[in-house]
Each structure stands twice: as structure tokens, then as C-alpha cells.
Amino acid sequence: MAGHEIPEPAEGRPLAESAAVPEQSTARHHECDPAFRHGVVVGFDGSLSSERALAYAVGMARRTRSALIIVHVANRLPATVWAGCEPPVFVDVPDHRTEVLGLELACAEHLAEISWVLVERGGDICHELEEVGREYEADAIVVGGTHGMVGRIFGSVAGRLAKRAQRPVVVIP
After folding, report:
1. Which of 24, 71, 84, 130 has most Cβ atoms within 10 angstroms of its Cβ?
2. How far apart, in Å, are the Cα atoms of 79 and each of 62, 63, 92?
3. Dist CA 107 CA 127 (whole Å)
4. Opening angle at CA 51, ends 124 and 133, nearest 5
5. What is the pLDDT of residues 6-25, one digit of tens each?
């Protein structure tokens, strides 16, 4: 048998779930660096509010002696705008902003004292921040508050995330 063999139960005893299907135990958990497990997730896009959120998250990570997971969510646009196909298909728009943000963060002195990683995702900001928080088993998610008409009309990322997140959300004004 290719891959692995499933052993037969001895003396009529059932097999443990992990022994019966080894792929299931590894598929449930996203493999990430254990040094970043139980860290602080922060959404960062280079805006003034995200810079304040990053500064707070750095202090929070320093106080709790944990790592920092900085998340930049790239833009995704529906392909139906160009192709006219059904159902909507999402296309990742090339976003070189993550590379620029990574270089800026690498030069930042306030990040020199803690372990941090920059994670790029594409899609809905709220969903992606919560997903990264789940994958890294984060202790908290820190985001900047939005001020303006767009946040009032469509709902802010911070407000939507606070309603649906499964872990503490800290909103920095």
C-alpha cells in the first residue's frame, strides 16, 4: 500500500481516531512556527490608524513576552467585472504594497526587540484576520479604528471583527 498502512485492531479493540486516519490530525491544525503560537495578531496597511494599532500591539507583545503576527490583506476583486461569468470568481490583484510594508517594518527600530512575522492574505479583511488568529491560536487581535464616511456606511472593519471574532479584539482609536 502506498503512503502508510492502517493497522488492524488487536483483540477486538477499536483503533484510536488518530491512528485510524493520520491525515485528519495534521489537517486540523495549520502548520506555523511554534514561536508565533499564542502571539498577538495586528492588521496593518500602512495607514495612520494601523500604525497606532501596530504600536499598541508591539507594546502588548512585549508585555506578554509573545510574538507579533502582522497581517496585510491584499485587494481581491470579482472577476465578473471583466469576464461576466457566474458565479463570481475572485482574482488577486497584484499588490506590491506588502513588499514595501515588509521593508519598512524590517527597518523599524520598535520591532527590533520582539519576534515578528509579516503575513500576506487576500480577501475580506475581517475573515482573514480571524483566520490568521485561529491558525496561530492568537491571544488577541489588534486593529485600528476607522474614522470617516465609508466606515459609517459600510461598517468598520473593527466593528465587524468585534462582532464575529472568537478571541479578544482590541480597537485602537
Report:
1. 71
2. 42, 44, 9
3. 29
4. 40
5. 444 445 444 444 444 444 43
* Residue 173, all three cell numbers: 482609536
The C-alpha cell of 61 is what? 507583545
> Residues 125-129: contacts with CB within 8 Å, 24+ apart?
125/43, 125/73, 125/157, 125/161, 126/157, 126/160, 126/161, 126/164, 128/71, 128/73, 129/41, 129/43, 129/71, 129/73, 129/157, 129/161, 129/165
**Cβ-contact 74, 102 below 8 angstroms:** no
Supply φ then ψ for residue 78, to 5 degrees: -70, 135
Residue 112 host element (H or E):
none
Block residue for cell numbers 499598541: 56
**Is residue 56 within 8 Å of residue 63, measured between CB atoms?**
no
Whole-structure pTM value: 0.69
| Predicted pLDDT at 26 | 38
Can you tell me the distance from the alpha carbon of 116 to that of 65, in angstroms, rounded to the nearest whole number? Answer: 12
